[in-house]
Amino acid sequence: MARQAETSEQRRERRITAWGLSFTWLLIIGGTQAVVAVIAILALIGSAVARSGQSILSNQSYLSQTLVQRYLGMMGWILIASDIATVLIFLFIVKSRHESFRQTVGLRRFRPLLIVALLMMGGGLSLLLNCGEQIIAALLPTATSSSSMTDLAFGQLFSTIPGILSIVVVAPIAEEIMFRGMVFGTLNKKLAFPVALIMQAVFFGVFHGNIPQGLMTFGLGILLAWVYLRSGSLFSSMLIHFAFNGTTTLIILVTGYAGTGPLLMWVLLMVVAIGLFASGLIWQIFQTRQKRPGLERGLEPAPTSAPPVFASGDEPPSMLVS
Predict the structure, then answer these.
(1) Average pLDDT, whole number, for the chain?
(2) Is 0.90 topped by the overall pTM?
(3) Rg of the chain over CA atoms, in angstroms?
């Protein structure tokens, strides 16, 4: 293989390049989120000053309560703007290198029969985790307590149409492009597959900013990257992410953020969730049982002296699930 012929210096340079690019992508993601948030805060302060004058800046009640409430009310739009801005920056970077954005992040077609399996996996996993959380909360009421600010932020997010749109639609698209397409794509080409798989999940968990969500999204990141490799298409991980976030949002809208309902109901729903997720997982494995060894090992195809010739109407193998 190509890596077996590497010298120690080449191997070191490859690893440095991988980590350097990955942290660059993370800096772009975090920096864009921060810049959009600061712009929103400055816009709110500027609007208040225009209405009430500069004296409003000395009003501690406004700065600590009203400003926070207005910011949380705008959070859906802020998340949408930051996600779109980040994807556009990545698009610009890839295009500036004269590369295909679709090929770089893996926006390839996949088998239509996978759609149902992926939705079952995402929805089943979300229901499973939410049922587990409710069961733990019923048995150990203090185990799942969270800060009031966290509850307030999520309550505001799930109570507005922009907030729901950002969680269910925009986030699955943008985060898959960011973390599976760019971060994992970079790591997997330069590092050993297990290292790339774990580190992109760690980055994905840290990105969500708190320990409970971080642990959950770490596991989700492992699953999403594995499904992406099995299908060869980023659309597959987007579908699972969409189903996961959509199911979580539906549960919160129906039961409330704190959850309601008897313990027995959550236990029965957990049994349903296990069956749903397991069925989707088995279906997905069956549909993608012929693996893509080059992609899974993080190796780029070896160069050939001439491009392959395809019959009329055929597509290159990279566009299809093998």
Answers:
(1) 83
(2) no
(3) 22
